[in-house]
Amino acid sequence: MVKRKLLLVEDNKEAAELAWLALENYDVHTVGTEAEGIAAIKADCEAYAVCVLDLILPNGNGVGVVRRFRAQCGCMPLVITTGLQDYEVEATEILKAGAQEILRKPWYTPQDLSDACTRAIIRMDIEPIQAKLDAGEERLKTGEALLQSTADSVHLPPKGG
């Protein structure tokens, strides 16, 4: 089975090593600065299934880091990790800036990090569909398993069929 690529942007060596253990189901590429992370995204944004991004990095921190990463690759899920004790103050802005998850270091478990990456990927996959459903541009008929958009219809087989 081919592992999905994950970009880990973490300047703390011990935190990066713990993340590696938690993310054994991914092909993890680790960098230690915001600039290195941005360069990796610019080189091949589509290659990464998700980015785990430390909120406080050399030469960049806070909501601005999230915004800069989101600006470089709007379709890549972002999981934010932070050692800040009072990150809740910025949490709403971090999520508005484009992060899907926020985890506090060092109290999250390896399973928490792995689960957060999975949830972030799923959220990014369904957000465009949800936006169209909310706007009334698409509809989902569960009884017939029909997803219909204003452009065309796609019939989906029922579960197990």
CATH topology: Rossmann fold
Largest sheet: 5 strands, parallel
Report how far the terminal alpha carbons are from each other.
25 Å
How much helix, percentage-wise, in residues?
Answer: 40-55%
Which SSEs are present, and which pair or pack?
Elements: E1 4-9, H1 13-22, E2 26-31, H2 34-44, E3 48-54, E4 56-57, E5 60-61, H3 63-72, E6 78-82, H4 88-96, E7 101-104, H5 110-134, E8 138-141, E9 146-149, E10 153-155
Parallel strand pairs: 1-2, 1-3, 3-6, 6-7
Antiparallel strand pairs: 4-5, 8-9, 9-10
Helix pairs in contact: 1-5, 2-3
Tell me what you see in this structure:
This protein is of the alpha/beta class. Helix content is 40%, strand content 27%. Strands 2-1-3-6-7 form a 5-stranded parallel sheet, with helices on both faces. A hairpin with a 3-residue loop joins strand 9 (146-149) and strand 10 (153-155). Helix 1 (13-22) crosses helix 5 and helix 2 (34-44) packs parallel to helix 3 (63-72). The longest helix has 25 residues, at 110-134. It is globular.
Task: Please sum up the structure shown.
By secondary structure, this protein is α/β, with parallel strands linked by helices. The chain has a single domain (4-155), classed as Response regulator (Rossmann fold, 3-Layer(aba) Sandwich).
